[in-house]
Every structure is written in C-alpha cells, then in structure tokens.
Amino acid sequence: MMHALAVVLLVAGGKPQGSKDAGVGLGEQAPLEVLVKAPEELGYKAVTERQYLLVTLLVGAKAAWDRQAWDEAATKWEAALRLPALPAEVESAVRPFATAARERAGGKASSVPPLTASPEANPTSVTITMEPPELKEKKQLVEVSGTVQGGGTHGPGGAVVIFRRASGSTPKPKAARVRAVVQKDKRFVPHVLAVPLGATVEFRNDDDFFHNVFSISKPNDFDLGLYKSGAQREQVFNTPGPVQLLCNIHSSMNGWLFVSDSPWFGQANAQGKFTVKGVPVGEWEVEVWHEWANQSSKQTVTVSASMGELSLSVEGDRRAPAFVPDKAGKPRQPQLGY
C-alpha cells in the first residue's frame, strides 16, 4: 500500500492533490506534503516519505543510467541501499546496478554494507527488469591463454586477438593513455601495438633527427607533422580497425596500430603466445588480425573456468605493397640513406 501511494505521488508530479505548488516535482531531500491531524499520523507520514524517497531514487538512478551518467546513477542507487529496513528483493536487485555504475564511473565498487531484511518488513512492488551487461559476467572471469599459428614467412608475432560476445552487444573499452610508440633507429617500437578504442597514443622521437609520422588508413588517418629529436606528439583513435604507420621522411619505416572495440583483447609474442585477462564465461567470437593476412580469421569459442589453451590460426597471404605511399597515397621512391 505504501509503495502504491508513493508511485501515485510520483506520477502525479511529486505532490499530492491540493498542494499549492502543483506540478513542481519534489527532490530527494524535500519533505512530502502529507496532512497530519493527530500525533499517531506522524508515523504514517514518515513511512510515506520514506517510500517516496525510495521510488524517487530508483527512478532517478535508472534515468541517469540510460543517459550514461554513471556517477549520478551510482550515487542514487547507493543512497537507496542505505535506507533502513530495505526489503531484501529491492536490495538484491539494486546492488548489482550500483556496483556496475560505480565501476563505469571509474571508481571502486561501493562499500555499502549488505542489508539484512527484518522479518516484519513489508514486501515491495518495485521491480527492476533491466540487466546490466556486467551482471552475469562478474560472477566468473577467466584468464584465457593460447597460441596463434600462421602469419606466413613472417610468423605469428604481433597478431592481435579480440574477444566479442557471440550474441548481444559487447561493451566498449575504457579509453586510456597508451604507452609511447617510439621512433628509434628509423623503426617504430613496438612494430605492432593493440590499443583500446578512444586511446591516446604517444609518438616519441628517440632518434637524433627529425620524423614526420602519418597514416592514410581512413578514417583513422592523421599527420603529426615534422618534429625533432626528443619531441613527442599525440593522437586519439576513435575508430576500430588497423592503422598503418608511416614516416614522410623515412620511407623504410613501417608499423601498425590495431584499435580494438572490445575491452577483451591481447597480442601474440614472437612465438604466438597470447593472454587475455578477465574474460567472462560464455560464448565468444574470437577475431585474429595479422598485418600479413588479407583478412582476419574468426571462430566461436566457449570460455569456461575449466577450459584449456586456445589454438588459433591466421593466414599470411598478403603480399608486400608495390610501393611505399606518400601522404596522398601515391608512390614514392626510397630516399638514399633513408
């Protein structure tokens, strides 16, 4: 009954009929205008205000979640969890969302203690039917290891392994500042680097002469311009896929970035060994990209706590390009001494 009253008040605009400010919604901290004519009605008013506050917090948190305002959603859900005598089913439904929202906001999982529902607590009619993507994933995470074979005469080194959900959407990775791609001895170090979507990559010149790093890999094409020894440039990568790195001064320089749209990715070492940490149990499509493969390879795998090492493969059928392109994509000749 109390929950039904709270919902009616919320839908009616936040105030009971007859209030002077009809149409002005109450905030979480505003008192609810319930008429009290006798001392025994004070308890009724307190219970009504508490139920109104609970529903207001739950509705406000869901609205914040939908617009990806993670900190606001977490704060409201955590406030709801702190309400005394919270029914057990509300606590169990809200806590996973509070945890997921707080972590998405960049903080640690909430330290709000679990509530013990009292035997006399009234059941609630409030239900949450949505399910955050992380709800089941966080129950069991697996460190997946394996070996990539292939890559032709170049070998599997540098292959990028990406895990995406076989069904449903895969959450985007958290943007990060990635360690530098160094220009040293007219080489890109590392030669291949996998980065998350939205990453800021640093390009640092450790040679004693100028470099001009650029790419014509659309839509991630960019041009850092000319910069001297010891200088550094930055570039943000907002589109998934491979990005070829070139230098406008030194035509022998060649490297790659792979921008992953999944938070679960890894990179093979020279022997083809790779590890991807924190993969939730379930069905996954695994893509393997290699700079010397015309197409990535894909296969479906089941991730479980008892799984063994994965064995993946990728082709090495891409031929070396006929020429090194300039910034316009046209041929250029290797420069003497460069």
Written overview of the protein:
This protein has 338 residues and is α+β, with helices and mostly antiparallel strands. The protein has two domains: 136 residues, no CATH class; 192 residues, Immunoglobulin-like, CATH 2.60.40. The strands form five sheets. Strands 5-11-10-7-8 form a five-stranded mixed beta sheet, with no helix packed on it. The radius of gyration is 28 Å and the shape is elongated. The N terminus is likely disordered.
Detail the topology: elements first, then pairings.
Elements: H1 2-11, H2 41-66, H3 70-81, H4 88-104, H5 134-137, E1 141-150, E2 160-165, E3 177-184, E4 187-189, E5 192-196, E6 199-205, E7 213-215, E8 222-223, E9 232-237, E10 241-247, E11 254-260, E12 265-267, E13 273-280, E14 282-289, E15 297-303, E16 310-314, E17 324-325, E18 331-332
Parallel strand pairs: 1-16, 3-6, 5-11
Antiparallel strand pairs: 1-13, 2-12, 2-14, 3-4, 6-9, 7-8, 7-10, 10-11, 14-15, 17-18
Short précis:
The chain is of the alpha+beta class and 338 residues long. The protein has 5 helices and 18 strands. The protein is 20% helix and 29% strand.
Quote the distance from N terminus to C terminus. 81 Å
Topology pattern, helix = H, strand = E: HHHHHEEEEEEEEEEEEEEEEEE
CATH class of the largest domain: Mainly Beta
Q: Count the beta strands.
A: 18
Number of helices: 5
Q: What fraction, in percent, of the residue positions are helical?
A: 10-25%
- Strand composition percent: 25-35%
CA-based gyration radius: 28 Å
- Provide the number of structural domains: 2
Low confidence ranges: 1-26, 115-131
CATH architecture of the largest domain: Sandwich
Q: CATH topology of the largest domain, anyone?
A: Immunoglobulin-like
Strand count, sense and barrel status of the largest sheet are: 5 strands, mixed
Q: Estimate the global geometry from the Cα principal axes.
A: elongated
CATH homologous superfamily classification of the largest domain: Cupredoxins -  blue copper proteins
